[in-house]
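Quick log. Single chain, no ligands specified.
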Amino acid sequence: MQTDTPRICASLKHELALQTRKVIEQMGKFYLVLKLAYTFQGNKLERDQKISEYIGTPGTILDWCSKLKFIDPKKIKI
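-> predicted structure:
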């Protein structure tokens, strides 16, 4: 289910993002088209990798928008 609109789950703390990741992976283990990217500091992605679901902390999500250009902030809807 890839769309042009990124889906982002921002967690205030790294530990909370890890807990959220576990829950989403358990809930989505039978949903094979789900492709998550974890925007934790130190997590590396290829520049041309297409991912539309992100989980992470606000600072790292902001870096992925501005510095690394993995997320186009103009396509984010709240």
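Residues 14-27 form the longest helix (14 residues).
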